[in-house]
Amino acid sequence: MPIDQTSPIEVTALAWVPPFARGFVRDLRVRWALEEIGLSYRVRLIKGTGGMARGPARPENYLAEQPFGQVPVYREGALCLFESGAIVLHIGAKDERLLPRDEAGRSRAIAWMFAALNSIEPQTFTLTAVTIFFGGAPWSAEARTALTPMVAQRLAHLSAALGDKDWLEGRFTVGDLMMVDALRAIPDQALVVAHPNLADYLARGTARPAFQRAMAAQLANFIPDQTAA
Question: Are 30 and 84 in contact (CB under 8 A)?
Fold first, then answer.
């Protein structure tokens, strides 16, 4: 669905980030979930923090909405949510295309969503941090060498669990949405390509029209570099 500034759903996003972060800010997950079930949303753009402090001023009470000062924030009527996982779970509850209605299917989808956030992403994000944010530090190469086998092991376990299925539970759910987004952010994609089924899984996820629309919308919202200061 296109962005609709009259929509009752509001998603907070950053107005500008450095080029390496574009397409990876986590409001993308929320946009993707909304696109999957055809719900329009409006966008509230704000400044980032530190080196990303460019764009519209942040509300003075923003920490009351997002205790850690991050994005996204999701508003729908009186409801205000933070944390992309919690928001996607809320959206998934609206439509069985994201979250199955049967108890077993629903629980398994949620389990995979937690797996993406707790078993995969913490290690892969640490690898991202030492590669991108601290890439110039004298200890960075040694840290990457130490972290890579742990990430590789987690991906091997994930590959075995996926097997020859298209999706983790045989059909696309919020678990796949979160897992695909976690996998695509791994800085060394050779770790994913080492498992052909994971590479195909990632390609299927990012080829979904809803993902493509969400990505295009996020990228379109960033203010141009020449006017970012």
Answer: yes
